[in-house]
Specification:
By secondary structure, the protein is mostly beta strands. It has one helix and nine strands. A hairpin with a 3-residue loop joins β1 (17-18) and β2 (22-23). The longest helix has 6 residues, at 7-12. The protein is globular. The N and C termini lie far apart (49 Å). Keywords: Eye lens protein, Repeat. Residues 24-63, 64-108 form the Beta/gamma crystallin 'Greek key' domain. Residues 1-21 are annotated as: Disordered.
């Protein structure tokens, strides 16, 4: 399977830092089981379907965590995605009514160190 990288995908892969200086990285696929067109992100994306993908079928979180939303512009039901593989929508959602994921952002955890 050939991997496709488009100009919008490269633009979306900006630098962002999380945790203790680590980066964020997630790979989003159009089809289930990590097939089809893919998009790598390291910064927030308010609309995955605008120019990057037609839909979200599976996700691989390489470093994170990430906060995923069922609607564009970080709205709707939220899902916390930790490092790991999510081969289809029911791997990240317990909801039987919602199988869409349209926006993503790194989840920045800020706390006090004692």
């Amino acid at each position: 399977m050939a991997e496709q990288h488009s100009a919008p995908e490269q633009a979306a892969a900006g630098k962002s830092h999380g945790g203790l200086g680590g980066g964020y990285k997630v790979i989003v696929y159009e089809m289930e089981n990590f097939q089809g067109k893919r998009c790598e992100l390291s910064a927030e994306c308010p609309n995955l379907t605008e120019s990057l993908l037609e839909k979200v079928g599976s996700i691989q979180v390489e470093s994170g965590p990430w906060l995923a939303f069922e609607r564009r512009a970080f709205r709707g039901e939220q899902y916390v995605l930790e490092k790991g593989d999510y081969p289809r929508w029911d791997a990240w959602s317990n909801s039987h009514r919602g199988d869409s994921l349209l926006s993503l952002r790194p989840l920045q955890i800020v706390g006090w160190l004692r």
